[in-house]
Design a protein that fits this description.
Two copies of one chain form a homodimer. Helices cover 76% and strands 0% of the residues of chain A. The longest helix of chain A is centred in the middle third of the chain and has 26 residues, at 113-138. The first copy, chain A, has two domains: 3-52, Homeodomain-like (Arc Repressor Mutant, subunit A, Orthogonal Bundle); 56-186, Tetracycline Repressor, domain 2 (Orthogonal Bundle), CATH 1.10.357. Chain A is built from ten helices and no strands. By secondary structure, chain A is an all-alpha fold. Chain A has helices at 3-24, 31-38, 42-48, 54-57, 60-73, 80-91, 99-111, 113-138, 145-167, 173-186. In chain A, 38% of the residues are buried. Chain A is globular and about 50 Å long. At the A-B interface, helix 6, helix 8, helix 9 and helix 10 of A face helix 6, helix 8, helix 9 and helix 10 of B. Chain B binds a DNA duplex through helix 2 and helix 3. Chains A, B: InterPro entries: DNA-bd_HTH_TetR-type_CS (IPR023772), Homeodomain-like_sf (IPR009057), HTH-type_TetR-like_transc_reg (IPR050109), HTH_TetR (IPR001647), MftR_C (IPR041347). Chains A, B: Pfam families: TetR_C_14 (PF17754), TetR_N (PF00440). Chains A, B: Residues 7-67 form the HTH tetR-type domain. Chains A, B: This is TetR family transcriptional regulator. Chains A, B: Residues 30-49 bind DNA.
Chain lengths: 189, 189
DNA sequence: CGCTAACTGGCACTCGGTGCCATTCACACT
DNA sequence: AGTGTGAATGGCACCGAGTGCCAGTTAGCG
C-alpha cells in the first residue's frame, strides 16, 4: 500500500470518528463503530491509531516536529520566552477552513477527561523540546529547575489560551496566545 | 463499618499496591493482585478506588480541600502569586516519614504515562480553585485569559518543581517550590 | 505471470471497569 | 442478650479497549 493511501484512510477514519464523537458522545462510540464508519476492520483500526483516544489528537505529533524546527530556526540570541512565542505562533497557525475541526478537537480534549489526559501525555514531548531549547539559550542544563519549570509553564499557558479561545466562539486564537505569552514574560508578581 | 475501618483498609490497600507497583511494575500488576494483596475481593477494591490509576494518587483530593482552605485564609490584599505560593507551601508540607512514600508516588506519576495523565485530570480541580481565587483578587472573571493562564501555569510550575526534586535524591522540596514561584513572579522575559 | 512482502481482518484472549444480587456484617433499639 | 435493618461485601456475568496470532488478500516488482 502506498503511504498516500494510508494517510488518506487515516484521514477518513479521523473525520468519521470526530463526527461520531461530537454527535453521540465519546463514550457512546465503540471502536467497532469507528472501524465500521471508516470501512475497515476493528483490528486494522488499531494499526492506524494506537488508541481510541488518539483519533482525537491526530496531528499533534506533526506539530511537535514543527515546534522543534521552528525553535531551531530562532537565533540563539533570542531569549527563550520570545523564541517559544514565535515558534508557537507558527505551529498554531491554522487556515480558516480548519478552524471548525480544530474547535471540535479541542472541545473533545476539554470535555472528555480521558482525552485531555492523553493530550497531556502527548504534550510531554513539547515540554522536553522546550526545556532543551531554553537550557541552550540560558546556557544551563535542561534538568535544572528553571528550564523545567519554564517548559511546563509555557505549554500550560498555551493550553490556557486554548481554553479561553474555545469559550469565545468568535475569538481569534493568535492574539490570545500572544497575550498569554505577555503575561508569562511580564510575570504574575 | 466505621469510617475508621474503611480508611484503614484503604491505607492497607494503598500501601500494598505501592509496594507491588514499584517491585513488579505498574502494568504487570493486575487489579486481582491488588485486591488479593489487600485481602479484599476484586469488586470491593473498586469501591475503595474508582480506578487502578487512582491508588497511586491517594491523598490528592484531600490536598485539594487543603489548598482551597489555605487560599481562603490568605487576606484579599495579597496578590494571587504570593497567595498561591503560601497555599502550596502549606499543602505540600510533609513529615519526613512520608517522604519515601511521596517519592514513590511521584516516581510512578512521572514514569507511568497513564498515571501521569490521571494526575493531570486530578489537578484540574486545583486549577479551577486557583483561577477562582486569582480572579477574586484581581477583580475580574475566572473565565478571562489572565486567571485561566495563571491557574494552569501555577500548577505546571509546581509539577516542574516536583520533577526536579525527584531527580535529586537529597533535595528538599520546599526551596524548589519557592524558587519555582520566584521564577514565575519575576517572569521569564 | 509469478514471487515476495506488506497489509488486512477475523478470532480468541487478557485486563479494567460496572451492574446485579445474594450473603454477611455492624450497629442500634428493645 | 436478641433481633431487625441498612450498609458493606464479594461473587458472577457482562462490556469495551487493546493485543498476539494467523490465514487470506493485495500490491508492487522482476
Amino acid at each position: 500500500m502506498t503511504s498516500a493511501t494510508r494517510t488518506l484512510r487515516a484521514r477518513r477514519l479521523e473525520a468519521a470518528a470526530l463526527e461520531l464523537f461530537t454527535v453521540r458522545g465519546f463514550d457512546a462510540v465503540t471502536v467497532d463503530d469507528l472501524a465500521a464508519a471508516g470501512g475497515v476492520g476493528r483490528r486494522t483500526f488499531f494499526r492506524y491509531f494506537p488508541t481510541k483516544l488518539d483519533v482525537v489528537l491526530g496531528q499533534l505529533d506533526d506539530a511537535l516536529a514543527g515546534l522543534v524546527s521552528a525553535l531551531a530556526a530562532v537565533p540563539d540570541t533570542v531569549d527563550p520566552t520570545s523564541a517559544a512565542r514565535r515558534a508557537f505562533l507558527q505551529v498554531n497557525a491554522y487556515s480558516p477552513d480548519d478552524e471548525p475541526v480544530l474547535r471540535r478537537r479541542l472541545t473533545l480534549i476539554e470535555t472528555v477527561p480521558e482525552v485531555g489526559a492523553r493530550a497531556s501525555v502527548r504534550y510531554e514531548g513539547w515540554e522536553r523540546a522546550l526545556a532543551a531549547d531554553a537550557a541552550a539559550r540560558w546556557g544551563c542544563a535542561p534538568g535544572e529547575l528553571r528550564p523545567q519549570v519554564f517548559a511546563r509553564v509555557v505549554v500550560a499557558a498555551m493550553r490556557g489560551a486554548f481554553t479561553v479561545w474555545l469559550a469565545a466562539p468568535d475569538a481569534e486564537l493568535e492574539p490570545l496566545v500572544v497575550a498569554a505569552f505577555d503575561d508569562l514574560a511580564r510575570g504574575f508578581g
